Amino acid sequence: MSQSKIRVALAGNPNAGKTTLFNALTGAHQKVGNYPGVTVEKREGNRIRGDREYHFIDLPGIYSLTAYSIDEVVTRDFLLDEKPDVIVDVMDSTNLERHLYLCLQFQELGIPVIGALNMSDEAEAKGIRINDRALESVLGVPMVKTVGPKGTGVDGLLDKIDAILVGEAYEPNRFIRYGDEIESKLSILQNLIQQDSSFCQCFPSRWLAVKLLEKDANAYERLRQHSNAGVIEGAAREAVLWLEKHYGKDAEIVVSEQRYGYIHGAVKEVIQIVKKPDFSLTESIDRVIMHPFFALPIFVVVLWAIFQLTFVVGEYPMRWLELFFNFLSIQFSSLLPAGILRSLVVDGIIGGVGGVLSFVPLIIFLFFFLSLLEDVGYMSRAAFATDKFLHAFGLHGQSIFPMMLGFGCSVPAIMAARTLKSRRDRILTILIIPFMSCGAKLPVYVLLSSAFFPHHAALMVMLVYAVGVVAGLLSAVLLRNTILRGDPTPFVMELPPYRMPTLQGILWHVWEKSWSYVKKAGTVILAASLIVWFITQVPVYTPLPQELSTLTASYKSAHPNATEAELASYLDQVRAAAAVEYSFAGRLGKAVEPVFKPLGVDWHFAVATIAGFAAKELVVSTLGILYRVGTEGGDKNESLRDALRSDPLFNPLVALVMMLFILAIPPCMATLSTIKAELGWGWMGFSFVFMLSFGWILAFLVHLFGSLGF
Amino acid sequence: MYLSDAPNGASFRVIKVVLGKEVGKRLADMGFTEGVEGVVIRGGVFRGPMQVRIRGYDLLIRRSEAAGIEVTPVGDWRPVAHHLGRPWGGRRGRGWGRFFHGLRVDV
Prior knowledge:
Chain A is of the alpha/beta class. In chain A, helix 22 crosses helix 23.
C-alpha cells in the first residue's frame, strides 16, 4: 500500500447517486478516459487532505458481481485485477435491502469495504431510520451517512479510509453466512483453494468459492491458473450438484436467496420505518407518463421537443461558427495567392475543421437534454413505452432515442446509443441509425423530387424517409438473425423514482461527451475531409490555350450578343466541371461507372456520391459543378433542375432510384468516424459494406422492376 | 401461476424463478427470491413490459421474462383488476373512462 497515493474504487448500484458523490469527493480534479478495449467511461479524480493523496476511480454502476453486462465485467475485472486499496460502496439509503446485496459481495473480495449510505436525507424524509452504528456491527462493514449533492459525509468517508489504512475498522474475515449446508461446501472449497498460496495472492479464496457455487463461468476460467485446478473444479461441481438436489433449485439461485435472506434479517434489526413508503409523487406523474395509451404519444412529444430544441436552437451557434469560419476563409483568401495552397488552407483545412466544429453545438444541446432526461429518470419510462414495438424487430426499448435522433444527424445519434447497456443492442442500433435520413440528405431528396416529381415532391420525400425507416427495421431483423444472433437481451431494469437533477452533474456529462467528440471524431474527420479535398482538387486542371480559344469561339458564335462577363462566367463553369472530371475523384467516378450503370446513371452521379462522403450536402453542389450551373442556390437552383431534366439519362424512375441509393449508401465521413470511435474499425468497415450493398441492391431492384413496368 | 399472468394491481408472492441460466440468476440478483412479495403496478398495452414493485423498489420486466417467475396470488386477483377499471376513481367506466384503464393505481 503506497503511503503517498491511496487508490479508492467507488462502486455501487446504478441510481445510487454515485457520480454526484464522486464529484463531491474529487471536485474538479478529474479525468475521463476509457477502460481498455471498451467504450465504458472511466472517471478518475484526486483529493488531497493533510499529507495524504486519495485517488478515486468511479466504477460503472452494477447490480451484481456476476458479470452480465459490459459494465459489470469492467467493474469485476477492475476490482480483481487492479486491487484498489479500499472500495467505497455507494448505496441508496431509501432502498438499502437491495443495495446491501452488492455490498456483501464486495466484502467477499477481501478488499476493505466502506458503505456510503447515500441519499440519507431522502431516507430521513421518507421516514426510514437507519442505525448506521448497528448496521456496521451486524455486517462488519463501516458505514457513513452521505448526501452527494451537499457533500455531506465526505470527511467521514475520508476518516474511515484513514482508519482502515492504519488497520482499524476492517475485519478481514467477516463475511456473510450462507447457512450450514452451503458453508460446509464453501469451507471444503476454500481449503482446497488455499493450498496454492501464490494463487491466493491474486484471488480471494472466499470469493472464488462462492462464485464457483454460483456457476460463474469467469470464476471457473480464473480457477485454471490454480495448481490444483482439476480437483477443485471437480469438488465444486459435486457441491453444486449436491446443493441443487438438496434445495431443488439452481445453486446460483440458492446462493442469491441466502444472501437476500441474511440481509433481510440484518436490515430488520437496524432499520426502522416510521412511515408507510410513499410513492405518491412519482406515482402520480407515472400515471400520466406511463399510461398504457398515452405513454407512446407522450414519448413522441418529448422526442419531438428535444429534436426541435436541439436542431432549431442549435442552429444559431452553428450559424455563428459558420460565419466565423467564413470570415477566416475570406481573410486567408486575401492573404494567400490563388492556387493550390490557398485551396488547401481555405477549402481543405478551414473547411474541414469548420465541418468538425459545426457539430459541436448540436452535441452540446443534445446531450444537455438527454442527460437531463436520464438524471430525472425518464429514460427507463421511454423504454417502457417503446419496448413492445421495437422488440418485434429485435431491438431494445432504449434504442428508440438514438434512432429518432438519426433524423437530425447521425453523429450525435450514434453517440447517444451509449445509453444501451448490452453491446449487441448497441451495435445493432448504431448499424441502423444511418438508415434514418439525416438533415443533410434532405437537400438531395428535394432537388431530385422537385425536378422529376414536381406535383408530388413532398410526397416523394416522405416516401423516401419511410423507406429508410422500413429498411432500418428490416435490417435490424436481418442482422439479428444472422451476425448478431443470440438470446434477446432480457428487459429487466430498475425504474428509479423521479429525482431532481443537479446542474453540475448534467454539465459534466455535456462537457465529457462534447470533448470526447472533438478529440476522437475531430482528428478522423479532419483527415477524411483533407483526403476528399485532395482527390477532388488534384491533379490540378489547367485548360490548354487552344481549348480555351475553341470554347470562346464556339460560345461567341452561339451567343453573338454575349458580353465579356457572360463569356467569363461560361468559361469558369466549363473549367470547374473539367477540373472535377480531371481530378482523382472524377477518374474514380469514371472507373466505378460500371457499378452505377445498372442503376441507370453515369459517372456524374458517381462523382457526386464520392464527394458526398465528405458531407451529404456536397452531393448537390458537386452535381451543380458537373452540370455547369454553378453551386449557388443549392437545392432551390432552378437551372440545376433544368440541367438534370434535360439529361437524357434521367427520368422520374432514375430520380427515385438515386434518392433510394443516396438514402442507403454509406454515411458521410463524420458518421463513419464516429462509428469507428464507438465500435472500432471492424464494425465501421462492416457498416460501410453493409450499407453500400444494401443501397445498391435496393436501387438496382427498384430500377429493374421500374423499367419493366414502364 | 406466473407473474406474466398477473393483472394490474395484483399482489403476488414468488415461489421460484424457473428461468435458467443468466436471466434466472439476474432475476434472483434483482430480488426475485422465494417468498418475496410484490405488486404489479401496471402493464404496457399489447402485453408490453410490466412495472413491478418488490423489495421497496420498482422495476420494469418484459412479459417473456415475467413468464419465468412462478408466483402465487396474494389476495384475490380479479376484483383488484376490476376496481382498476374505474378510472379517475369514479364509478365504473362505460364511456371514455374504459380507455383510461390503468391510469389510476391504488397502492
